[in-house]
């Protein structure tokens, strides 16, 4: 059983309150909470796309497999920023080794450490597009909820909500009403849109009322949900509120661009917002996707011969 | 008139009265033996019998709209019956007549019953109050018949007193208003008080002329004529006016009493019958006999005509016959999308696509005027037809059709080429074949009607048909022959009943040979064929585009697949003649040769066809879209050997189990067996699993049924030693020594065996067992326990030590199931699990949403069905609208797949964007889905858009606004989420992307454009209107109203764009070419011709007034001013306008001659800004419908700058 501090840390991590998590002071190095807190903090740094801070945080030369895996993931994320193939491959290899290592009977580390290694390796593999490998590593029969969350998102990303649901149903049997389980359910809801996204919407609304943490990420998530529910003005207010708390958050901005396009803002303002977003976050999937569509458009247009203008 | 076609015949006692049911194929017959029969003449079955009259029943009638029958008999009674099968009974009896009742009849609208009687009276009864409301007296002998007039308040009666009388009963309606209601009219007057009624009805005319008693008289349905039949063997026709009636003519020919004579309900014919055993047909106009039908022994007593159909019934001494006077099958021929057919002796063409139905050629002078042509053969190359007719011993006529319909329809006699022959068809572009049945010679003639070849057919040929290139199909009594004209030899012969019609499939690969009760489907060289039997007469047929033969019988439309499978599509009230099948529509001709269409649901046969062709994609598509369920499809699939497919449809556990066993799907069988949990199921599962070598399931099944013996044996067989030892323990626990022994034996456990034997007291056996297995000590012990010594048993022979052991385990079968050949990944498993089919292209026109054309059968007609078939809307397919049930099946299918996939990588599913593309025909939805290519194709097809570059920002912003991202899990790439139009809709088959721009928002942009116009910012206005038109291309519409609003918006934007462009051009001209006053004026004038709103129109008009006044075109300026006044502007402007008008009046001249005629409507060419007056040729923008001079066809539209002028376009699809 986790201590209440760890529970709180975990909750923050799950709900995406990475900023406040990063700001926490670490407990005493001798405390049993030290390593877990450290790991969550490091992962929060990674989640914030700041792997260098994570690497600074992680003590070098630790024997703990989870710590090593976190470091590898951080390196991988750092490398993917630099687009250096070799570095990426090297850190993936590290993770692969770790994943194999923990499979051995005499492997060191607690069960939770091993599970974390799998989650981290799975994360890296997914980022690298190695979905099959990720699923293999995570093990679709795992009883680690974090792994399930990962698997579910992977399934959702390949348009297999049916399989995602199966994972969720399976997890319900042993995970009871864990917060993470609720998040998983709401994530599935985001994709399937069951009952008009009501489950997702109420989950995020509920978490917004959670007194023990504040996370702009939840606001963003609810904003996105509201976009999906075609509640554009409400979505806009959520997103703007979220932006106030975390200026320039790519995800929130991306959602705001979409909301603006759906009538939250005037056309000119929308375009301005978009131009700004493109310049500030050129790597955001939305930008990349639209750019791809732009070239697709040009390609398609070329197939039509335009006659001369009548005159 | 050479035919009188008997449709039905029955044997019975003498028939004295007959009545047709107006809508159903029922006929009531009143019999001399007192019975009233109700026949279904189409099916030939006796539906009901009413037997309460004593003595002969003469009069019978069926109510025109209600299920009532009235009968009158020699027991003086009139009885009214409810004929609905569920409550058939005599409702009431009318007493009053004092002698035989001869005829009875219902009034067509009042609740009246008319009866005539030998008591010399005619009575009218109110069937509601059940009272006699009038007694018509005057005849001085038996009244043999009385009939209401079809419209007026008249009655015509015939009597043995040799007169026919016409009675005026209008007093009955006026005089007793309450007579229609219950209890009205005759409250105080019981039967017998005749005097009270006499004032209501008076004799209008007494028609004298017959020399003997008159048996029957009736009014003409539409003309003021009466026909009467009498014992003087004469039929007389009488005419009447308002004031008098007189004899017109007589028809002589019957040589005995004429029992009855009827006007044909539609044609100018009289049909009569008499005691001379004949039924005769007469020409009403010429009063000449046309046809006589003789019967050997039976005198005819009564005739009845069907009110709507070409059907008659005649009653005679030993039964009745139902007949028709002419063939109703219209002669027709289909070529491409055109149908050529004959109606009312005119050859007509009917376009299946447009429905245009044109008369092309009159054939009135061809053959008998009473007979329609029998066949029509069309020659597309020469645009000629050959018709045949059966009159005059059979003849044909070859005529060219006019190229276009003209005012004066040509008559075939002008240049038609005739000849004798029973059958004539085109066999080549310039050749036709004629069969002469009597001489058995087929002549091949050229278009000049000259014989070029003579053929002696190899069989006795009754009819010839086109047999493919240079071939004929010859129909004989017992076979059809495919005959090569060139080589004059038989190619193939199929045994078949006489073939009456031949229908070739569209590609000429298959041919359907229709006989009376069989259909033979053959390929083009007759090398393969299949036969279908029908119990009911086959009428016609046509090929579906997919190679399914659709045919009609008397009361069904059915389908038949080439391998012979057939089924019902829908039921028919009346026979139709199928001409063409297109998608869900059957084109046909009805009995009066009018083209009709019937929409039906092709799902069933398309599914079967797909099954037959292993076209799983299409099957899956049908399954998905139509939710096929129900017993019949399961039974069908099972029967056809596709239980594994059936398994996908079934939810019922028992059926699932059966199917799973049948197709050896042990997983499903296991699952369902668990649910059912009955011993027999487990046993069957065990058997099946044993067959497949899946011993694990066998084990499970045995365990469930506690079949210990078999279980033990199974363990022995699989070498599962530890399980065997467990079984031993179980046997111990159960205390079953036999089982213990078995298990010990199987396990090779000698000790165990001995101990069992000892426990049950079989010491000798125990001893010997111990001994032979070398367990001497134990043997001693047993001996001791038995109280014996070695010496006592020295007579027991000693056996050598046994070296038998249980067989060693060679393969540890326990741990592996017998490998079964993988059935391959079933297409359905995969597709259903993935939630979609890959690359699924929507088949051309399969859908489950069509309303079957079948009309609900009522109680009677259902009796006919006799479970021959299942009605499409009931049992057959259960095309369930909601997909819910299917989804369940889907999940089940997934289950199986997931098991395998756990661990391995899952294959990606169908993305939401793909669903969007699949679910919508709207370009905007394709854009939102990112499928730009298909979106462009749609825009191009729907609106002729070619210049897409301008739409790029729209495309991108729509796409951008339809998707969003969220990362619920740390450090993973964010989830790509898709925004739906209707968040409440999550079914994959209905999700659609969000509507990025609403029509409303575009309209507000339009309003912004209006403001620019008002503010004289024309350049901005032009841009805005153009952008509005661009945006309107990509907007989601959801109803007809919205679509209309959309069209209005497009038109408004176009008009403004045009107007603004004209005004801009005018300003440019004014600037650049100040001398070109004329053009300046013209453009100002055209601007006022655009459809603008009043405030903007005022601006346009005032600008025009100013320009024209300045150019000293006072008359024109005054006209504009007048138009301005009509718009009721400001008082200040009114004053100016009046001045202008006054100036115009003073000086009504125009200094500059301009091309502007405001009195002729015109459109403005949007390129040249010149008028296109009404009637002049113009081309249009496929999107906005803006007009252009013809020379601009194919150029880019300058208004929207998107479309190709004059390109074909299908317009906005209605997707809601």
Automatic annotation (TrEMBL), chain A:
Entries under Pfam families matching the protein: Coatomer_E
Membrane topology field: Peripheral membrane protein
Claim: Cytoplasm is one of the keywords in the record: yes
GO-annotated molecular function: structural molecule activity
Compartment annotation: Cytoplasmic vesicle, COPI-coated vesicle membrane; Golgi apparatus membrane
Main location: membrane
GO biological processes: endoplasmic reticulum to Golgi vesicle-mediated transport; intra-Golgi vesicle-mediated transport; protein transport; retrograde vesicle-mediated transport, Golgi to endoplasmic reticulum
Keywords on record: Cytoplasm, Cytoplasmic vesicle, ER-Golgi transport, Golgi apparatus, Membrane, Protein transport, Transport
Family as reported in the entry's similarity comment: Belongs to the COPE family.
Function according to Swiss-Prot or TrEMBL: The coatomer is a cytosolic protein complex that binds to dilysine motifs and reversibly associates with Golgi non-clathrin-coated vesicles, which further mediate biosynthetic protein transport from the ER, via the Golgi up to the trans Golgi network. The coatomer complex is required for budding from Golgi membranes, and is essential for the retrograde Golgi-to-ER transport of dilysine-tagged proteins.
Name under which the protein is recorded: Coatomer subunit epsilon
Source species of the chain: Hypsizygus marmoreus (White beech mushroom)
From TrEMBL, chain B:
InterPro entries from the UniProt entry: Beta-prop_COPA/B_2nd, Coatomer_alpha_WD-assoc_reg, Coatomer_asu, Coatomer_asu_C, Coatomer_complex_subunit, TPR_COPA_B, WD40/YVTN_repeat-like_dom_sf, WD40_PAC1
Stretch list, region Disordered: 172-192
Alphabetical list of Pfam families matching this protein: B-prop_COPA_B_2nd (PF04053), COPI_C (PF06957), TPR_COPA_B (PF23953), WD40 (PF00400)
Domain COPA/B second beta-propeller: 345-590
Biased composition (Gly residues): 177-191
Gene3D superfamilies documented for this protein: 1.25.40.470, YVTN repeat-like/Quinoprotein amine dehydrogenase
Ranges of the WD repeats in the UniProt entry: 8-49, 50-84, 94-135, 136-170, 207-248, 251-292
Cellular component per GO, a single term: Golgi membrane
Keyword hit for DNA-binding: no
Membrane topology: Peripheral membrane protein
UniProt GO molecular function: structural molecule activity
SUPFAM superfamilies tied to this protein: DPP6 N-terminal domain-like, WD40 repeat-like
Metal-binding listed as a keyword: no
Keyword annotations from UniProtKB, A to Z: Cytoplasm, ER-Golgi transport, Golgi apparatus, Membrane, Protein transport, Repeat, Transport, WD repeat
GO terms under biological process: endoplasmic reticulum to Golgi vesicle-mediated transport; intra-Golgi vesicle-mediated transport; intracellular protein transport; retrograde vesicle-mediated transport, Golgi to endoplasmic reticulum
Function: The coatomer is a cytosolic protein complex that binds to dilysine motifs and reversibly associates with Golgi non-clathrin-coated vesicles, which further mediate biosynthetic protein transport from the ER, via the Golgi up to the trans Golgi network.
Record note on quaternary structure: Oligomeric complex that consists of at least the alpha, beta, beta', gamma, delta, epsilon and zeta subunits.
Protein name, as recorded: Coatomer subunit alpha
Organism: Hypsizygus marmoreus (White beech mushroom)
Gene name linked to the record: Copa
């Amino acid at each position: 059983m986790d201590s209440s501090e760890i529970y709180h840390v975990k909750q923050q991590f799950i709900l995406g309150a990475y900023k406040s998590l990063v700001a926490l002071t670490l407990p005493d190095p001798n405390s049993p909470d030290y390593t877990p807190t450290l790991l969550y903090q490091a992962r929060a740094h990674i989640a914030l796309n700041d792997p260098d801070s994570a690497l600074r945080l992680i003590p070098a030369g630790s024997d703990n497999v989870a710590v090593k895996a976190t470091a590898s993931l951080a390196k991988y994320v750092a490398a993917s920023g630099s687009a250096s193939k070799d570095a990426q491959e090297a850190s993936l290899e590290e993770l692969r080794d770790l994943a194999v290592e923990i499979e051995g009977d005499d492997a060191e580390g607690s069960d939770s450490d091993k599970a974390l290694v799998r989650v981290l390796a799975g994360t890296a593999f997914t980022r690298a597009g190695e979905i099959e490998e990720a699923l293999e590593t995570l093990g679709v029969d795992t009883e680690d909820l974090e792994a399930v969350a990962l698997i579910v998102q992977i399934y959702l990303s390949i348009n297999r909500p049916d399989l995602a649901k199966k994972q969720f149903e399976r997890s319900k049997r042993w995970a009871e009403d864990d917060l993470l389980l609720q998040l998983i359910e709401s994530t599935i809801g985001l994709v399937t849109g069951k009952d008009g996204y009501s489950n997702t919407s109420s989950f995020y609304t509920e978490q917004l009322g959670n007194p023990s943490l504040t996370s702009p990420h939840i606001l963003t998530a609810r904003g996105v949900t509201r976009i999906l529910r075609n509640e554009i003005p409400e979505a806009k207010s959520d997103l703007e509120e979220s932006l106030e708390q975390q200026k320039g958050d790519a995800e929130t901005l991306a959602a705001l661009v979409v909301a603006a396009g759906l009538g939250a803002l005037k056309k000119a303002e929308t375009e301005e917002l978009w131009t700004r977003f493109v310049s500030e976050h050129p790597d955001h999937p939305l930008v990349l996707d639209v750019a791809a569509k732009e070239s697709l458009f040009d390609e398609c247009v070329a197939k039509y011969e335009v006659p001369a203008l009548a005159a | 008139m050479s035919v009188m076609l008997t449709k039905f015949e029955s044997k019975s006692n003498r028939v004295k009265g007959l009545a047709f049911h107006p809508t159903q194929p029922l006929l009531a017959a009143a019999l001399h033996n007192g019975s009233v029969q109700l026949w279904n003449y189409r099916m030939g079955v006796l539906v009901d019998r009413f037997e309460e009259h004593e003595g002969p029943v003469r009069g019978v009638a069926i109510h025109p709209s209600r299920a009532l029958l009235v009968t009158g008999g020699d027991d003086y009674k009139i009885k009214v019956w409810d004929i609905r099968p569920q409550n058939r009974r005599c409702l009431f009896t009318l007493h009053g007549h004092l002698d035989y009742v001869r005829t009875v009849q219902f009034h067509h609208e009042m609740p009246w019953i008319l009866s005539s009687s030998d008591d010399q009276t005619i009575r009218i009864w109110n069937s509601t109050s059940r009272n006699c409301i009038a007694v018509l007296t005057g005849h001085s002998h038996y009244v043999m018949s009385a009939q209401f007039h079809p419209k007026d308040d008249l009655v015509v009666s015939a009597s043995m007193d040799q007169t026919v009388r016409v009675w005026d009963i209008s007093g009955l309606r006026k005089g007793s208003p309450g007579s229609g209601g219950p209890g009205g009219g005759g409250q105080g007057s019981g039967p017998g008080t005749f005097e009270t009624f006499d004032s209501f009805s008076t004799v209008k005319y007494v028609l004298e002329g017959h020399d003997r008693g008159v048996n029957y008289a009736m009014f003409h349905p539409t003309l003021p004529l009466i026909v009467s039949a009498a014992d003087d063997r004469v039929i007389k026709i009488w005419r009447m006016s308002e004031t008098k009636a007189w004899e017109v003519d007589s028809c002589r020919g019957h040589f005995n009493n004429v029992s009855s004579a009827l006007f044909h309900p539609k044609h100018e014919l009289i049909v009569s019958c008499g005691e001379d055993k004949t039924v005769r047909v007469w020409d009403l106009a010429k009063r000449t006999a046309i046809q006589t039908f003789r019967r050997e022994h039976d005198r005819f007593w009564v005739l009845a005509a069907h009110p709507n159909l070409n059907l008659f019934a005649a009653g005679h001494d030993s039964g009745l016959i139902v007949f028709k006077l002419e063939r109703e099958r219209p002669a027709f021929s289909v070529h491409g999308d055109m149908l050529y057919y004959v109606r009312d002796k005119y050859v007509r063409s009917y376009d299946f696509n447009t429905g245009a139905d044109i008369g092309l050629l009159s054939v009135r002078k061809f053959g008998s005027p009473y007979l329609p042509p029998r066949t029509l053969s069309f020659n597309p190359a020469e645009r000629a037809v050959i018709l045949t007719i059966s009159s005059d011993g059979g003849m044909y006529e070859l005529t060219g059709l006019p190229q276009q319909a003209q005012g004066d329809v040509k008559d075939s006699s002008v240049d038609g080429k005739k000849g004798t022959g029973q059958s004539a068809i085109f066999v080549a572009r310039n050749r036709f074949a004629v069969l002469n049945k009597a001489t058995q010679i087929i002549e091949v003639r050229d278009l000049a009607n000259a014989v070029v070849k003579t053929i002696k057919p190899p069989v006795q040929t009754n009819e010839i048909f086109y047999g493919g290139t240079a071939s004929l199909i010859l129909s004989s009594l017992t076979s059809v022959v495919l005959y090569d004209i060139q080589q004059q030899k038989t190619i193939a012969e199929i045994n078949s009943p006489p073939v009456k019609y031949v229908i070739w499939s569209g590609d000429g690969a298959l041919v359907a040979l229709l006989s009376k009760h069989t259909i033979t489907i053959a390929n083009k060289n007759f090398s393969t064929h299949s036969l279908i039997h029908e119990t009911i007469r086959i009428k016609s047929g046509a090929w579906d585009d997919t190679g399914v033969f659709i045919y009609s019988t008397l009361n069904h439309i059915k389908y038949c697949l080439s391998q012979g499978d057939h089924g019902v599509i829908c039921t028919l009230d009346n026979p139709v003649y199928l001409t063409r099948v297109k998608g869900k529509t059957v084109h046909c001709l009805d009995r009066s040769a009018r083209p009709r269409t019937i929409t039906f649901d092709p799902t069933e046969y398309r599914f079967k066809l797909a099954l037959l062709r292993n076209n799983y994609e299409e099957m899956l598509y049908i399954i998905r879209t139509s939710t096929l369920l129900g017993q019949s499809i399961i039974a069908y699939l099972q029967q056809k050997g596709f239980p594994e497919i059936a398994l996908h449809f079934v939810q019922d556990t028992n059926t699932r189990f059966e199917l799973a066993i049948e197709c050896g799907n042990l997983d499903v069988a296991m699952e369902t067996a668990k649910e059912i949990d009955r011993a027999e199921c487990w046993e069957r599962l065990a058997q099946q699993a044993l067959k497949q070598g899946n011993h694990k399931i066998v084990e499970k099944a045995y365990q469930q049924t506690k079949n210990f013996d078999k279980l033990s044996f199974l363990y022995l067989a699989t070498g599962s030693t530890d399980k065997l030892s467990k079984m031993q323990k179980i046997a111990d626990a159960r205390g079953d020594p036999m089982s213990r022994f078995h298990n010990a034996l199987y396990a090779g456990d000698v000790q165990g065996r001995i101990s069992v034997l000892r426990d049950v007291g079989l010491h000798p056996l125990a001893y010997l067992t111990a001994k032979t297995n070398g367990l001497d000590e134990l043997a001693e012990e047993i001996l001791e326990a038995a109280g014996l010594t070695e010496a006592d048993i020295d007579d027991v022979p000693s056996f050598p030590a046994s070296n038998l052991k249980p067989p060693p385990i060679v393969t540890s079968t326990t741990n592996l199931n017998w490998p079964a050949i993988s059935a391959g990944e079933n297409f359905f498993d995969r597709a259903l699990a993935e939630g979609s089919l890959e690359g699924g292209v929507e088949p051309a026109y399969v859908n489950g949403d069509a309303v079957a054309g079948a009309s609900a059968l009522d109680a009677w007609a259902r009796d006919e069905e006799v479970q021959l078939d299942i009605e499409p809307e009931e049992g057959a397919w259960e095309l369930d609208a909601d997909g819910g049930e299917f989804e369940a099946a889907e999940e089940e299918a997934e289950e199986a797949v997931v098991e395998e996939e756990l661990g391995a990588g899952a294959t990606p599913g169908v993305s939401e964007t793909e669903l969007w593309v699949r679910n919508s025909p709207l370009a905007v939805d394709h854009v939102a889905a990112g499928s730009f290519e298909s979106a462009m194709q749609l825009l191009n097809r729907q609106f002729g858009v070619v210049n897409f570059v301008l739409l790029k920002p729209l495309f991108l912003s729509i796409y951008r606004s339809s998707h969003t991202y969220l990362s619920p899990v740390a450090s993973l790439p964010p989830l790509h989420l898709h925004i739906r139009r209707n968040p409440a809709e999550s079914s994959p088959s209905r999700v659609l992307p969000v509507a990025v721009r609403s029509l409303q928002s575009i309209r507000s942009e339009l309003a912004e454009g209006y403001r620019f116009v008002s503010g004289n910012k024309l350049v901005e206005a032009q841009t805005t209107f153009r952008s509005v038109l661009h945006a309107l291309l990509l907007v989601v519409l959801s109803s007809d109203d919205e679509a209309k609003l959309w069209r209005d918006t497009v038109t408004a934007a176009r008009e403004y764009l045009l107007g603004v462009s004209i005004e801009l051009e005018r300003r440019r001209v004014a600037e650049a070419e100040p001398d070109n006053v004329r053009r300046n004026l013209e453009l100002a004038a055209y601007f006022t011709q655009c459809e603008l709103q009043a405030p903007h129109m005022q601006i346009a008009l005032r600008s025009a007034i100013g320009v024209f006044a300045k150019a000293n075109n006072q008359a024109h300026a005054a006209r504009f001013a007048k138009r301005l006044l009509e718009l009721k502007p400001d008082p200040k402007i009114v004053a100016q306008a009046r001045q202008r008008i006054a100036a115009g009046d003073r000086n009504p001249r125009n200094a500059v001659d301009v091309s502007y005629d405001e009195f002729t409507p015109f459109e403005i060419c949007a390129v040249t800004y010149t008028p296109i007056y009404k009637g002049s040729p113009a081309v249009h923008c496929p999107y906005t419908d803006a007009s252009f001079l013809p020379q601009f066809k194919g150029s880019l539209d300058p208004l929207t700058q998107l479309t190709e002028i004059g390109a074909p376009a299908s317009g906005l699809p209605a997707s809601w």
